[in-house]
Write a structure and sequence with these properties.
16 helices; 2 domains; mainly alpha; MetI-like fold
Length: 325
């Protein structure tokens, strides 16, 4: 198992290097430092001196890959690629263009993102699987047909409708929870109820139908018919056999999402004024803070690769064939 994990990590390194190089090309070749300076300072009435001063303050006045004027190793180290891109592999995100420490901001903002995303994932998973099992248990009945119609209706509604409608009905009319905002400690719970509820409800349609498809594929297999022939009830068959054998596709969807929970929800955090990584990224894009955007792109790539490795490892716990391989 250790050798397998190490091999997967080694496979991931070329991907990270490729993502880093591609991000560098997008931010410093396609969109040159001069373009960044003019976007920050304003396109109109920007002098060349102001552009050069901004580039010097941000460290963008260095050569991209090779500093011909420097000596020895400084030919490589005194470049934008070395100082702005290679440091990302050490999770040294540097400073934003407003002077704030990006690493400290990420550590501070990851907790609000997790406080929304983690309950939404757990509750949503339990609800979706329960609804899907109910539809399979009562398949070929009016209850299944009604559930499918309801799922299609829920899928057809935009997520913005759930957010705005939930804020208006639950927050403004019923005044059960605050419409937006955030607080620390246990006081944050009242601000998280509505976003988590909306996340769960908006995901029932697609989630329940996806799990229903998985379970329907399993109930037609030979081992299920054998279990029924042994006298097991349909409920026992579903929970003891079907659910267990459908764990690999379930884990594929769940474990890959886990690392992305740190990145937060761009729309949800913006609408509910929650200071997470999602709103952090949106604000950086609006301010054209390229240092933050570049860091978040790289961090998202790292977390996604970690999720893929976790998925492969989790397979070995639910499928003996993977362990033998």
């Amino acid at each position: 198992m250790i050798q397998y994990i190490l091999r997967r990590i080694l496979y991931a390194l070329p991907i990270l290097i490729g993502v880093n190089i591609f991000t560098f090309i997008l931010f410093f070749v396609v969109n040159s430092p001069d373009d960044m300076a003019r976007m920050q300072l304003g396109h109109k009435h920007v002098t060349e001196e102001a552009v050069q001063n901004w580039k010097h303050q941000q460290g963008y006045d260095l050569p991209l890959l090779w500093n011909q004027q420097a000596k020895a190793t400084e030919k490589v180290t005194e470049t934008i690629f070395y100082q702005k891109s290679l440091s990302l592999f050490l999770f040294d995100f540097g400073q934003s263009e407003s002077g704030r420490n990006i690493g400290a901001d990420i550590k501070q903002r990851m907790w609000p993102s997790l406080s929304i995303a983690l309950p939404s994932l757990i509750v949503g998973l339990l609800v979706n699987i329960s609804v899907a099992l109910m539809m399979v248990l009562f398949r070929n009945s009016y209850l299944e047909f009604s559930s499918i119609v309801l799922c299609v209706v829920l899928m057809s509604i935009s997520s913005l409708f759930y957010i705005i409608g939930g804020q208006f009905f639950i927050g403004k009319l019923l005044k059960l929870v605050p419409i937006s905002g955030y607080d620390t400690g246990f006081s944050a719970i009242k601000f998280l109820i509505l976003p988590v509820l909306i996340s769960v409800v908006s995901g029932i349609g697609s989630g329940a139908r996806w799990y229903r498809t998985l379970f329907l594929e399993e109930v037609e297999k030979d081992y299920v018919r054998t279990a029924r022939a042994k006298g097991l009830t349909e409920t026992q068959v579903l929970f003891k056999h079907v659910l267990k054998n459908a764990m690999i596709p379930i884990l594929t969807g769940v474990v890959v999402v886990l690392p992305l929970l740190f990145m937060g929800s761009l729309i949800m955090e913006s609408f509910f004024s929650i200071p997470g990584l999602g709103s952090y990224t949106i604000d950086a894009i609006n301010r054209q803070d390229f240092a933050i955007v570049r860091s978040m792109v790289f961090l998202g790539s790292v977390l996604f690769i970690v999720g893929l490795i976790m998925t492969d490892i989790s397979y070995s716990f639910v499928d003996p064939r993977v362990r033998l391989t």
